[in-house]
Structure formats: C-alpha cells, structure tokens
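Entry type: protein chain
Record version: 2
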Amino acid sequence: MSNQSSWPPGRRDEVVEAVHRSWWNVDQDLGAGSELLYTEDGICEMPALRMRGREQIAAGYARRQTNGPRLSRHLVSNLVTETGQAGRVTATYVVSLFAGNGVAPLEVGSASAICDVRDELVLADGSWLIAHRRLTAVFVAASNDSIMLQRGSPDD
C-alpha cells in the first residue's frame, strides 16, 4: 500500500466523499444521475449485472424501479484507500445493504446483503470519478430481492 502521507492535504477526504456520494445518490435519488459519477467508459460490476459506460449504468439503475418504489440504504464501512499512479486511487470497503420495495418506513431485519467493494477512481477535471466498481457478495439474505445481487446469474 502506498504511503498516504504524501497525498496533498484533504485528498483522502475527497476520495471518501466520492464513494459516499455515489451511494447517497443511489439511496436518495434512486441512482438517477449516478452515471455522471463514473468516467465515460466506467464499469460497474455486480454479482448479477455488469454495466459499461454511462448509458448502461443509467439504464441499470433505472431497472431498479421496475417493481415500483424502491427504498435502500447502502452503509459504507471499513474504507481504506491505496494510491496508484498520479490521479488514480483504489478504495476498498464493505457495503451493508438494507433494501426493499415500498416507501418509508419499511420493516427492517438483518441486512439484505453485505458486499466487499473495490472502486478504482481517477481524478478528472478536479473531481474523483469511478473508473471501475466491483461488488462481491459475501452474505446475501434469502429474502434479497435486488436485481443487481441475485443469487444466480441473470439467466438462471
């Protein structure tokens, strides 16, 4: 892991903000506009879905609404960063997902899923954008109904 003390002041905070902003967008804006937080050719890989480019990412998040209103909270924890080449950084963390169809307040139990996430971000025009996001499901509840975290492949 690269020494983070060589980062300009506030740089790690900017990366953490970019990660949190992306999940806040999914939770508060249903992912509308989420594609703008990715590079033009950005990749978002989830267990049941792989999206490449802003158009596919926008369409993928729009699919979340096909069963009516969707409520989610993606809780980010254990975030660590690793610097790479100039203007590149990797953020690795855990997302605990609580989600369901409907409107607030929904009943809550245990998490719908717990995923390891690895984001590769690039600095573009003063903003950190996601070049590649990969979610790996670690735990998935039997009641999970996310189209992006299905237990099997989308063709099962």
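Comment: The mean pLDDT is 89.
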